[in-house]
Amino acid sequence: MEDTIYLASSQHKLWSFTPESLSSVRKATNAAAAAQVREAIMRAREKKMMNGGVVKSGNSNGMVDSDIGTPADGSGNGNGVGADGLALGPDEKEIECLTAEEELKLVRYYCRKIMDIATVFEFPTNIKATAPTFLRRFFTRTSPMTYHPKTLLTTILYLTTKTENHYIHLKDFSSKIPKSSPEEILAPEFVVAMGLRWCFEVKHPFRGLEGAIMELVKVSEGKYIHPTHPTTSDPQETNTFNPPTPAEWQAKLHNLPPLPTSPHLPPKPRIERAHGKARSILSGPVLLTDAYFLFTPPQIYLSSIYLVDPPLAHFFLDLKHPYPHQSSLLQTLKSIIESCAEEVRKGGEPGAQISKEEMDEVKRIDRKLYFCRNPEKVDLVGVSKQAKRGVTEDEESGTGGNGEAERREREVKKRKLEREKSFREGEELFGSQTK
Amino acid sequence: MSRARGVAQPMPVMERRERVDEDEICPVCKSSRYLNPNMKFLINECYHKMCESCVDRIFTLGPANCPVVGCPKVLRKAKFKKQTFEDIAIEREVDIRKRVHKVFNKRPSDFDTLKQYNDYLEEVESLTFNLIHGIDLAETEKKLSAYESLNKSSIAANAALAASEAAAFTHNQELERQSIIAARQAAAQEIEDEKREAKEAKKDMVRALAHAKDEDEAKRIVAESEKKIALKRSSARRKEEEAKLKAAQGMAGIKASLLAGSRRQRMDEEEDTGPFDPLGGYTDKSKYFVVDSSYDIPWLADLPNRQDILSGGYFVEEYYQRCLFEAFSGLSIIPEDAPGSDISMAD
């Protein structure tokens, strides 16, 4: 019954992959984005040649306070020089795009960042976990070359507060983030939602972990009841085989092989220890890995228990699959848990800071990204305004700051016309026009 | 049934706007009802409408082509009939159904199980549907004629049975009608008799009173006649009741004989497989857990005292249920079965 409901979720239908399919999707995304970026940069160059060096305002949009010195906001006068550099630097040489691996590293770094921001806001765990998941999901089918992750962090976090029912006013939100404005936060929201395929539900392993711990505590108290619901198509076996009694389970839990680090821990403190440590793994390292894409929430929390207390995780699986006919499923599940634990290990230790090498690597990638960003998607506020107004690019081209003034003028004219019309209609109402 | 009708023969297209005109003007000779108030429209197997005089004019000398342009049918005068339904498509469907049911006239009693009968009905319905909507016409016709030739004897037997049943039914109805008429006549007769007797009794009494010697005798005569009348009334009532009873018994007999026909066809159902389960074995019980009444959760320990939370309708049982549910929702899904491997782009 539980599995059926999970199979119907969007997390399973749209956001579950095998390792191979995930990497192939990422490669395809990367290849498509690279082609788009090359075309866009060529277009920008042509335009620049035609305009004779009119500099379009470039990177004025919201940058989250970041500690990597990218040329975009680290060099101080980012505006003019940035836009110029875009055209001057790679003018002669071929545009060098990011690889899928580099993109992944970058996204991973920004997953850390978005969790840091959520911590500053003191958001609850579900937001802290959903935001990086959204970020990862978005960037499986969109490349950082198209949209820079940094420009989307606040948008994604704000969207998460909405989807997780933790309301915060946009003004309060943006006032706490330096160099950001409400428009900049909202501008890419549609793009982000579309990239998430409008699936805002993320199934987390946290509550499942609580459930498992509840069951384990029951066992330690000797009060565990196994459901009598028939689990097999062969009722004979259910009738003949008797699963262990609560007391037997309690004894088994008591006799689990001890942990090498703390050998003389009685069952209940041992469960509590596993609970706390597993929770910290779930709310940290897991979110920096592909675990949510590759495994289901129960598998993830079991692997986090496995990482801190392997016998306990195995005991829980044994507890839930006591019948002989379930032994093959049990073996499969154990191997799944192990491979999931392998994936979770890639996320590092809980609470660990980013290493020096990783940081240097991210800086290198970000510098490289600076030269291969899609110049048409840099000014997100402008892009979204254009989309809202439905103005084609040709109308807008070349006007730059002029566009805003023109628009206002048009609106004023429209309003004036409306006023005149309503006045005329008022006059006519009682037939002053009769001739 | 609102599918596009891919009928082989051209069908008259009916539109609401034209219908008024169509009712008034013969599409063949264009004469209108205004000039000929007695005009009647007839149709034939191609369902093209024409007026009676056109039918007389064209088909009196033997079979001829349908006068509607593009209709290849050869029609005979004998087969023209009045339209029963306003919608020509329904008219046609009813005709086809009649034709199919003439051939496929099996009864529930011809089958061993209800399922077989239902399968048969489904087969018949799909044949009919094909015929009506012109799907695989040739093949369906072939099927129909093959079935007809194969089951000639059973079709005939069933038809005879149906005819005899219909005859019995009309006979019974006739009997019922007659008994009702007889009862009514008897009642009228009785009322008349009563009136007459009352009149006679009064006459007798008056005569007796005229010959009476004194007051006492007169009184006695009046009392006697009253007594007589009362006696008659009660006997009449008894008679009436008896007649009613008789009639009711007669009716009951008729009804029972009517019902007997349908009751006879009761079938042996498929073997009983226990009580009916509308969900087909689906249950909301988990095979992994049972929710206990309370769990030892430190941060929920203070909950019973938290009136601010409880008064809002918070049930801690729901939380337990949800935790345990999520602990197993997706546990045994093998990662290799993940569906998200389609490589399609979002941007």
TrEMBL record, chain A:
For bias kind Polar residues, which ranges apply?
229-242
User: What Gene Ontology molecular-function terms does this entry list?
Assistant: cyclin-dependent protein serine/threonine kinase regulator activity
Q: Which organism is it from?
A: Terfezia boudieri ATCC MYA-4762
Show the PANTHER family listed in the entry: CYCLIN
Task: Report if keyword Nucleus is assigned.
Answer: no
- State what protein this is by name: Cyclin-like protein
Q: Where is this region: Disordered?
A: 227-271, 384-435
Pro residues bias: start-end ranges: 257-268
- List residues of the Cyclin C-terminal domain: 204-342
Source domain of life is Eukaryota
| Amino acid composition bias (Basic and acidic residues), ranges on this chain | 404-427
- Would you kindly state one Gene Ontology biological process term found in this protein's UniProt entry? regulation of transcription by RNA polymerase II
Q: Which UniProt keywords apply?
A: Cyclin
Q: Which residues cross the membrane?
A: none
Taxonomic classification, please? Eukaryota, Fungi, Dikarya, Ascomycota, Pezizomycotina
TrEMBL record, chain B:
Compartment list: Nucleus
Q: PROSITE patterns under this entry? A: ZF_RING_1, ZF_RING_2
Upper classification of the source organism reads: Eukaryota, Fungi, Dikarya, Ascomycota, Pezizomycotina
| InterPro entries tied to this protein | MAT1/Tfb3, MAT1_centre, Znf_RING, Znf_RING/FYVE/PHD, Znf_RING_CS
Q: PANTHER family recorded for this chain?
A: CDK-ACTIVATING KINASE ASSEMBLY FACTOR MAT1
Tell me the protein's name.
RNA polymerase II transcription factor B subunit 3
Its Gene Ontology cellular component terms are:
transcription factor TFIIK complex
Species whose genome carries this gene? Terfezia boudieri ATCC MYA-4762
Q: Which residues form a coiled coil?
A: 177-251
- Boundaries of every RING-type domain copy: 26-68
User: Is Transferase set as a keyword in this record?
Assistant: yes
The record, for CDD domains, names:
RING-HC_TFB3-like (cd16573)
